[in-house]
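FAQ: What does a ligand-bound record look like?

Like this one, built around adenosine-5'-diphosphate:
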Amino acid sequence: MIILKIGGSVITKKDSKTPLLDSENLSRIAREIADSSYDKLIIVHGAGSFGHPSAKKYAVGEKIQNEDDFERKKLGFCITQNSVKNLNAQVCEYLRREGILAVSIQPSSFVLTKNKRITHANLDLIKKYLDSGFVPVLYGDAVLDMDEDIRMAILSGDQIIEYLGTNLRPDKVILGSDVDGIYNKNPKKYPNAELMHVVTSGEDLESVEGSQTTDVTGGMRGKLRELLSLAEMGIESEILNAGRNNLIKRAINGEKGIGTLIRSKNRE
Ligand code: ADP
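The answer part, i.e. the structure of the complex:
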């Protein structure tokens, strides 16, 4: 089983203040997936400009100040949830056009968080889809949270990866982003940043930051935290540049070391 995450930075124009698809990247990546070989595949995609601007505007997932604020946040929740659902519909459509049997799985319809971490999610349906030969497609979403102070949370695609990885024990986890991997500092700010081929702990990095765009879920720092947690459980992952031709395809086909491998210290 392979779990593939496609970053919101790749399939959307993440700098845009309104939802904007990067259809060129999306159709190329759909073709690459269709051209590669796998047995079972789960795809998770980020929200990019379909999620972060509205989540930020309405401060969805932040502490509720009063009744009015709660009402406003609920409105922001609906707007965000619908927008990322629209992105997901397009992703599934592009995949299906390439012959991939993509089925949409809406995280907010079966996931609950507590203090922004997943506590409830029944994966039986996903397993059943996989067994029947479908490719489930999940995504970063606005979900209900059981913490009374926030009641809603923005669930990142990266946290979904961590949860699925822990519970389904895939053979491989691949993350396509808009950079070649993890650098010792943010490559978009520091031209002399160096690409790391293997990362085994957050201490390896001078500064892993959030993304430069409006990302409410923690950018590269958030990503690394989830992947290190997977690594501790023995599940290795690789971050690579999905903006470059054929890297996703090569990784699905089994090539390793294309970007940055995240693995546990004990397994070096
Ligand atoms: P995605 O949307 O693909 O999930 P994010 O935008 O959340 O990706 O995170 C990727 C971004 O993280 C990069 O575009 C880069 O600007 C930023 N970043 C910050 N620190 C680092 C680092 N040390 N190495 C790589 N990227 C970093």
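Follow-up question: can I read anything off the structure? Yes, for example: The mean pLDDT is 93.
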